């Protein structure tokens, strides 16, 4: 089974890495202040379910549910409205192609 990476969860992002993720249509998520994978007991083997609301705004908090039943909140690291536009189009390339058609 082929799985596509749709989100990345980290403690923080360098601006260039954040821009690259958004440009590829990937959701950049950040742990809440004071939290990290170790404190939440994450091993990297969990399966995550993330519901992205259609009315998402830059910096919104969303819930992450795991196959273990555990849930936690994260920050979305869309910092601007245009980053959300790129994401909703599947990345900057898809957005630009649609603009040219």
From TrEMBL:
Transmembrane segments: none
Pfam family, one: Aconitase_C
Chain ranges of the Aconitase A/isopropylmalate dehydratase small subunit swivel domain: 2-32
Alphabetized InterPro entries for the sequence: Aconitase/3IPM_dehydase_swvl, Aconitase/IRP2, AconitaseA/IPMdHydase_ssu_swvl
Gene3D superfamilies (UniProt xref): Aconitase, domain 4 (3.20.19.10)
Protein name: Cytoplasmic aconitate hydratase-like
